[in-house]
């Protein structure tokens, strides 16, 4: 099985975090990037042939993959992780949709002669064994299998593809981002939503991509065009995604908006997180810079350096300050008498003395001067050029020049 990861979206809903980087390259969980979760799923599932389709602002993503992931793959054994930017081999336009992105790289994919192709998104947070999905695909002699899970109707509305399946999980209906999602028969508050994970039999995929490319009115999208068409004529199944240990609904988050991104990060520091990043049976891999351990020290005023219910990465120094329910990336510095609550600080942020920060996301290399405050006065934050979300989160962008 060959993995094709779609990692080229603009990420406009994650602005300003995607001002200078692709969405899959946005830091997550303190020491990771969003893309690390999909790649770790591939690696832990035994998939060693991976192509990433990039498009916008891909330098940071490419550098991360070079530093953290290329070492896991051996070309001599037929293993690889290749980054494919738009090559205009077939079309003179940029990718027009998810299906078009794969179609424009069909030459490279066909060269590997895969039996099966799994198409993945590079901007979702979850842990999943793709081998089990492939087994399900084979057992049902499917042409296409779509991973799906129950989600609340309000979360699926205008956001996710919604599936209607028969008792054998064969898909009999599909709507892309409907205003009124079709509910489950036994749970009217939930619907069966697509996770954007597709296993195709390779020959079937190639034929459908070529057929779709010839349709002038198509948007060339898997969810919008190909899936609604093939469920009428071919064997298309839904793979129910459950937690393998507890058989409950498994953890999966689309972090496509600032608020969703913030909530998924905060999930990690709950007392019993639904997503366990400390699971030794399913590790999450990444690039680990060579920084010294985090340090917590007393200030000159005998004030303790503390971090409670938080994730603090290597290289951080908490000097006589309090950090509560927050995530601190590598090399963050927090000076004495400062307080950070319910916040995410990206790597190399510097926080001065007597600073108060709450419900904020502070970008890499940003500095907060002495006696500053963030997240307490909306108008003051706006006057500094900070971005405020509808839920009241304050986003401090990168300084100019970084």
How widely separated are the two ends? 39 Å
Structural class: alpha/beta
**Largest β-sheet summary:** 9 strands, mixed
Helix content: 10-25%
Arithmetic mean of pLDDT: 91
Radius of gyration: 22 Å
Low-confidence stretches are: none
Beta-strand content = 25-35%
State the helix count.
Answer: 10
Structure explained in plain terms:
It is a single chain. The protein is an alpha/beta fold and 402 residues long. The chain is 21% helix and 27% strand. The protein has ten helices and 29 strands. It has helices spanning 35-44, 59-68, 98-103, 106-111, 130-139, 153-156, 202-213, 222-230, 258-267, 378-383, and strands spanning 2-6, 27-28, 32-33, 49-53, 80-84, 116-121, 124-126, 144-152, 161-165, 171-176, 190-201, 236-240, 252-254, 295-297, 306-308, 311-312, 317-319, 322-324, 327-328, 333-334, 339-341, 344-345, 350-351, 356-358, 360-362, 367-368, 373-374, 387-388, 394-396. Strands 1, 4, 5, 6, 8, 9, 10, 11 and 12 form a nine-stranded mixed sheet that branches. The chain is globular. The model has no long low-confidence stretch (mean pLDDT 91).
